[in-house]
Amino acid sequence: NMNRLKSSKNSRFAVCLLAILFATSVLARDTLFVMDVTMHGDTYAQYANNKEYDVTGNSYPKNGDLSADGIKQMYKLGQDFKKEYVDKQKFMSSSFDPNSVFLQSIKDQPGLMSAYAFMLGAYPDSTGYLNLKMDNALEHQKLVRKTVGLSETPNRGTQSVSVATDEGFLYWTNPAKQCPALYKKIQAHLSSGGEALDSEYQAKLYPELAAQFSKPVSKFNFASTHFYLDDYLVAQRTGSKYPQFSNQKNIDKLIEEYERDYYYEGMLGGNEISRVVATPLINYLLINNFAQGEVARGTLKDPKIAALKHSHFFTNEVGFAAFLKAIGYPQGSAPKGAQNIRFELFKTNGKYFVRSSLDASPLNFVSSEHGIFELDEFLKTIFPMMYFGDIAQVCAGREDISLNVYPKCQNYQDYLMQYFSEITHVDHKVVKKCHLSEKVVPVPVRRPERTVEHKVDLINVGFVEIVQVAPPQRCRVD
Fold it and tell me: Is pTM beyond 0.90 here?
């Protein structure tokens, strides 16, 4: 009986082991396209060059540039990309191919140097300098190379790297001048957000900060405290000296909550501003995943789209937070350096899927299963998240955002058909309006809208993961 019992236990163990091995194995899948949205790496203090906001007295740079730690963060992100898509999947070429990569950055030093550090991590031997015509660009790139242990001058045979820097695609470097009407809305939200959220901070946070930073408490309110905290938070990250509080743990928790509220409830308060700011990115995500799927199905012949394998966008805190909020996934903390959102389009078992992740963990929003959508369900989901008006008119104060938050098209396929014959010449900042009674451009015969099942078979897709889903939470302007 004991032998039979042992045999039974061993059999059950073997069955369980086989089940685990089967469940955790990744079935063959073909990656078709990868799109990343990355918050630039950690920076030095950007407001402490003004003595009013220098609360630590530290001697580190106070210019807002990408810090040494930030450079290393982005370099590692590139190395991780190389391990997955170059070494493991063999999806990307072993050397940098300019036709297969599209890069876009907000037009500032942290964004551009984050893009450069990432590319050095992904392709250290074949990445030359960025193709930039900006003051001191070469000096900054040499510093990046030196920081990650590479020679300051690229080897012969390396290729220059192009980075798009369209203002307004990933927010603006000077929104007060480049998009004044939206900037005024943001300032109004910071003011109204303060009225709604200030009570706890006024009682527990602002007096403590005022005492330790040797400032009048009247200096601290919802809109201004962020600037005083910049130097303090950089000092914490870099291990430099910073003012200490008797109840340090509680104060740091309050600071984290305040910074989260500053972005998600202040700058991006409501649901309109985030939608406007994030629209170029969502439009790009929609159009290019659709186009890549059509190329894979053989219904679209476009050599440039077929060659493109990876698109990467390097943004600041506002653009990153706006994108997460626009898709309905605000975070429990303010954006952190080198945070990364990834959308991976892949094919398995004859079906097409998009896997979304945040810092390598499933990004579960709307109807996704462990971050995975069937492609057409994904396109249908993100389509109504855009702003269906003219962003330039919004910036000029001539367009009411609330009147353009609903699609002008019947569905996402009607919208995408407008781009079908011009897919590689798209201005993703412009959301086209549909006129359903007219044919805007000649297009191939349309197939019926594909029906999809909302429940994704994770085993057959090739992903089984145990995920803790964050509960709904509340969530620097240059």
Answer: no
CB of 64 closer than 8 Å to CB of 230: no
Distance CA 161, CA 116 (A): 8
Confidence of residue 12 (pLDDT cuts 50, 70, 90): low
Query: How far is Cα 55 from Cα 211, in angstroms, rounded to an integer?
Result: 11
Q: Could you tell me the two tokens for 122?
A: 């992904």
Q: What angle do CA 410, 414, 417 make, to 5 degrees?
A: 170
CB atoms within 10 A of CB 437: 5
Over residues 331-359, the mean pLDDT reads 96
Sequence length of the chain is 478
Identify the bridge partners of residue 361 per DSSP, sorted by sequence position: 358
Per the CB < 8 A criterion, the answer to whether 419 and 287 are in contact is yes
In Å, what is the CA distance from 168 to each residue of 183, 279, 395, 474? 12, 10, 10, 26
**Residues of the chain above pLDDT 70, percent:** 84
Per the rule left: phi > 0, alpha: psi between -120 and 50, beta: everything else, 331 is beta
Among the listed residues 132, 130, 141, 125, the one whose alpha carbon sits nearest the alpha carbon of residue 93: 125
> Alpha-carbon distance 280 to 168, whole Å?
8
Q: What is the amino acid identity at position 257?
A: E
pLDDT in tens, 375-432: 999 999 999 999 999 999 999 999 999 999 999 888 898 888 887 766 777 788 888 8
Return the number of other C-beta atoms located less than 10 Å from residue 435's C-beta: 12
Pairing of strands 310-315, 340-348: unpaired
Give the DSSP letter of residue 164. Answer: B
Query: In a 3-state reduction of DSSP, which class is residue 83?
Result: helix
Residue 277's H or E segment, with its range, is helix 272-297
Residue showing tokens 């492609």 = 375
| Amino acid at site 239 | G
Q: Residues 169, 105: contact at Cβ < 8 Å?
A: no
CA torsion 326-332-334-336 (nearest 10°) is -100
Give the ranges where 95-136 is alpha helix by DSSP (H). 109-122
The Cα–Cα gap between 158 and 75 comes to: 18
